[in-house]
Amino acid sequence: MPVATRGTGGRTWRGAAGGVAGWTIMASMTLGATGGYADWWLRVVVIPQLKMREASCLVLGSLLQTWPTKDESPVLSQAQIDIYVFPSSAACLAQYRNTSDHCEQFHGKAYMTFEGNPSFASKHKFLQQYAHPGSFFGCFYSEDRERVIFERSFSWVQMMLLALGLTVGMLCLIMAVRQLVVLSKVLTENR
């Protein structure tokens, strides 16, 4: 039968080994999930927004589309603004030296956010802020010209989730190391 030793909180080598294993599994699961989430968030949200090109947009009109739902839940809606995009000619021509067709103006639709599903009230606020026909606003457009947004935005909630995941994962790792120290004490004193 294993003997508990002083300085180890009365733990046996089996208990200390179980603590090391448990905390290591928790750390690897938490850090693995956080790393996967960070990879998705960077690939889907952050990098595409950072790759968007700057332009000026002329507002032509706006639309708040709504669709009824089958049950009595809130109505689905989409706020969009009809725009004409004027790419920044100097920056565009510097990037596409011999092919100025990438720098031509184009007609498109601007949406409220790059990702997520904002509330109905925030869509109204978006339209109040930008839906002024004849007005110019700074905007950003994707290389394929499918997405146009007025502001780059990164959700602080997603950033906080990443920070929380890293913190919990690191605390689990610290606990695993502490349990490893206890295990080494138990094993050296039980020789």
Automatic annotation (TrEMBL):
<keyword id="KW-1133">Transmembrane helix</keyword>
<keyword id="KW-0472">Membrane</keyword>
<feature type="transmembrane region" description="Helical">
    <location>
        <begin position="20"/>
        <end position="42"/>
    </location>
</feature>
<protein>
    <submittedName>
        <fullName>Uncharacterized protein</fullName>
    </submittedName>
</protein>
<feature type="transmembrane region" description="Helical">
    <location>
        <begin position="154"/>
        <end position="177"/>
    </location>
</feature>
<keyword id="KW-0812">Transmembrane</keyword>
